[in-house]
Design a protein that fits this description.
single chain; 564 residues; alpha/beta; Urease, subunit C, domain 1; Diaminopimelate Epimerase, Chain A, domain 1; 8-stranded parallel β-sheet; 6-stranded mixed β-sheet
């Protein structure tokens, strides 16, 4: 008896059911699944989701919680986000890792609101030190003091008569020494400041104790060097703090070849989980070492890359060391400082292009930014693409704070990436108008002007100059107000970023600035599984609530590196 034949429609339905069953039974089992979240992927194709599955450190699936459960096996860890917000792993594009660690381990003067509070903290530390022992610290800034003035050696002498003291301003471009510290360096009224530095003096011609930029080295060279163990601990402490705050990668702006060796040793010992994109300072022997050895990309399972040289063109605006085209409005005899050796710099830039080494340059004043663009353009013209190891060098302007509007279009024309720190804008708004006058504020922290020209902005914090907290940076980018809500006259609110732009500034745009946009920066299948989990949705909550948002989890390479 012949078998009954299935109608064609039934055959097609059966085939469809088999296909559906296959789709519902993935061949791969996830190591970890994150369910029931508010997922902002940063992907144009699939901007929102509620679940992510990861395997071997990479994203395996992005979509609904029901579909994600199909990737669960007997060994899969399932994490219920319970409505929390999961973002692509946040990145700080300009960070000083050892500086952050040292700030936490020494005298942290961050947040002092008056000269009296500042001196009280110094005295408390001095009282714990034996006579003659150096006392150092960092983080003070006079912006909110009354009167708004730099501290002096006489101030410090009152609380530290028997100990040499040197305390670095928050920006790192100035510091104050007491009389004992000045004596150790032989600094008197007749001392000539080094090129690229200044020794401030009072009305009688005596040193006030304030040292600007390269003049700081006169005292710093006498401070006892940290031990290897202390330097290790500074890196570990800075990295641990960063992960707790939700950073999955920091881009470490400058340092030495010894720092590179230290970080490698700490990775080998399992002491650091944070991703580090490392630069060394130049022109220098460390920069020469990088040029000779070449870039090293993705060491330690993609966590460590060394491919960048950091150059410093000028000082900082707060200490009046930023190099300006015209004098400071509140110091008419001063236009700031050039802090690099231009004759050594020119051949280094050309060699970097030939060897495929990225260059990032600190430029704050409008003159420094123009100089940077001119020197970069000169190098690009001297080394044609055919002679470059990397055709698209992605050189960077770090800070890009004060730019003459006529120079803004040159960034896109030259392919130079503005790497900017939102928190600088909300801190500097208290003194930038007096330093610059209202007219020059048109090119200050001009985020939207750069974006409208087709640039990306790599967002950072410049910690320990600023606090180095991602929620402060995100808030500053979208609010363009200080943390109390103050903005002030002439602060160009139209330059604030949208929340979508701000998210890109701390995820995919830093990834691009590090040549990693195909590996990280958004939550897409195949990319590294780096996530930051927050207790609130910073894409929708009121601006002021952003500052109250807490990091609940930090995931790096698919592993939970921190959990609240």
């Amino acid at each position: 008896m012949p078998r009954p034949r299935l109608p064609l429609l039934a055959v097609l339905a059966l085939l469809a059911l088999l296909a559906l069953n296959t789709a519902c039974s993935p061949a791969e089992t996830a190591d970890r699944i994150f369910l029931n979240g508010v997922v902002h992927t940063g992907s144009e194709e699939q901007p929102r989701a509620e679940a992510v599955a990861v395997k071997d450190g990479r994203v395996l699936f992005v979509g609904t919680s029901d579909d994600a459960r199909r990737y669960a096996g007997s060994t899969t860890e399932v994490v219920d986000l319970a409505g929390k917000t999961l973002l692509p792993g946040l990145v700080d594009s300009h960070y000083h890792l050892s500086g952050v660690g040292n700030r936490e381990l020494t005298l942290n003067l961050e947040g002092t609101t008056s000269i009296d509070e500042f001196l009280s903290k110094v005295k408390a530390r001095v009282d714990q030190a034996p006579p003659g022992e150096w006392v150092t610290g960092r983080g003070w800034i006079e912006t909110h003091w009354t009167p708004r003035r730099f501290p002096t050696r006489q101030d410090l002498d009152r609380v530290a008569p028997n100990n040499p003291v040197y305390l670095t301003r928050a920006d790192g471009h100035a510091g104050v020494a007491n009389s004992a510290a000045l004596r150790s360096a032989g600094i008197t009224r007749s001392t000539t400041p080094p090129s690229g530095g200044d020794i401030l003096k009072d009305g009688r011609g005596e040193p006030t104790g304030m040292l600007i930029d390269r003049a700081q080295g006169l005292v710093r060279q006498n401070v006892p060097s940290a031990t290897e163990e202390q330097q290790d601990q500074a890196v570990i402490t800075g990295a641990d703090r960063s992960v707790r705050l939700g950073w999955t990668q920091i881009q470490d702006a400058g340092g030495s070849w010894e720092d590179v060796a230290r970080m490698r040793r700490l990775y080998e010992g399992g002491k650091v989980k944070l991703r580090i994109y490392k630069a060394v300072s130049g022109p220098s022997a460390s920069a020469d070492s990088l040029l000779a050895r070449g870039a090293s990309v993705g060491e330690f399972d993609g966590r460590f890359t060394v491919r960048t040289i950091k150059v410093v063109f000028d000082g900082a605006l707060g200490s009046r060391g930023a190099l300006l085209l015209r004098p400071y409005s509140d110091d008419p005899g001063n236009q700031g400082l050039i802090t690099t050796d231009l004759e050594r710099l020119r051949p280094m830039l050309q060699e970097a292009l030939r060897k495929g080494i990225q260059v990032e340059a600190h430029a704050i004043g409008d003159s420094a930014n123009r100089m940077l663009l001119n020197l970069f353009e000169e190098a690009f013209n001297a080394v044609p693409e055919a002679d470059r190891s990397v055709k698209d060098p992605r050189w960077r302007d770090e800070h890009t704070q004060i730019v003459d509007p006529a120079d803004i279009p040159r960034f896109k024309q030259l392919g130079v990436i503005p790497s900017m720190e939102p928190s600088h804008a909300i801190g500097d708004l208290h003194f930038a108008p007096s330093r610059l006058g209202m007219e020059r504020l048109a090119g200050a922290y001009a985020w939207q002007s750069f974006i409208r020209d087709g640039n990306i902005i790599a967002g950072g914090s410049d910690a320990p100059v600023e606090r180095g907290e991602p929620m402060i940076e995100f808030y500053a980018a979208v609010a363009r107000r200080d943390t109390s809500g103050f903005q002030g006259e002439g602060w160009h609110p139209e330059q604030a970023l949208s929340r979508e732009q701000a998210l890109k500034a701390f995820t995919i745009w830093p990834a691009y600035a590090a040549f990693e946009e195909n590996e990280r920066g958004s939550i897409e299948v195949g990319k590294w599984a780096d996530f930051t989990v927050l207790d609130q949705d910073i894409m929708t909550i009121p601006e002021a609530e952003i500052l109250k948002t807490r990091t609940m989890m930090t995931v790096i390479n698919g592993e939970i590196a921190h959990q609240q």
